[in-house]
What we know:
The protein is built from 15 helices and 11 strands. It has helices at 4-14, 57-62, 72-85, 100-105, 117-123, 128-136, 150-162, 184-201, 218-225, 236-241, 245-248, 257-263, 298-318, 329-337, 339-347, and strands spanning 26-31, 34-38, 52-56, 110-114, 141-143, 169-172, 176-181, 229-233, 268-270, 283-286, 290-295. The two termini are 28 Å apart.
Amino acid sequence: MNLSPLIYFSRLYGANPDLVTCGGGNTSMKEDGVMYVKGSGTALKDAVTETFVGMNHTNLLNMLDDVYPEDDVAREAKFLKDVTAAKLPGEEAKRPSVEALLHALFPQKFVLHLHPSLVNGLTCAKNGKEECARLFGDSVVWVPACKPGYVLAKLMKDIFDASKKTIKTVLLENHGVFFAADTVEGLATSLNGMMNALTSQVKEFPDVEYDGEEPGFAEKIKRVSGKNFVQFNASPSALKFAESKAAAEPIMKPFNPDQIVYCGPKVKFAMCEGCLDQIDANVIIMKGVGIYAIGDTEKNANNCMTLVKDAMKVATYAKAFGGEQPMAQELVDFIVNWEVESYRKSVK
């Protein structure tokens, strides 16, 4: 299979920071019973032939007719085993994206899955489902928040089976968007149409970039947290969220799995320097000062801050769609303990 079109649009969209943060998002291509999907822990912007994992499309779809355990651990272990078994010979060393089974559900040749902040302003909003119907009618399918992995794949299969028309675009609550098309140009048309429609609804745009000085709390944060790398943000948006604990509330809980993977499940709000004597989170919002992101490595701290910016953007965009709606605690707990995201974190 010639993967040139897949590599092309993977790099194109992967290099756009408005569409992809850190290692988020994945892509796939199908032909003659074979599907190539982005490997877990790889970056779209750096896509090459080796980035993708060859899989037996029929074997993937057959998983959805199997019976899986109710227990989370047992179910996801079987899910991982079966997805691994669906890889083609010679692909043993690669690990496919956890969303490989979702890609397999689409009959179209190309699939693009992204987590743009603007899109998640809708998927992470209180009125997201209603606003999706208002803006896109039945051309976009809304999938309610649920546990990722097999549970999500089975829910999507049921939605696909019940549909009377071919599904091309799916919005996943508190997650992101899938676009499917038989041409690369078709993907672009769907993506641009959605981004333009959402932009037209937004009344307030975030301002999250900052290149100024850090006011002097970084060394204490390093000492107390035991981590050596700190990023600081006092952008206009960050200062708005740092005005008070009430102002910070919209970004105190994660909106999507990426924020859990790169920032952890908790955010600390510090009223004063003395409140920094105990740090049990990777994100610290300091009243009147700004936002700190910490990590064991420089890359981890940078990634954490990238997802902090994402959270600020999502919360700001969500105002146009009824206000922010973070992930349910049950789903946060599942992600924290999910083997798949633990693996992704280990290679991020």
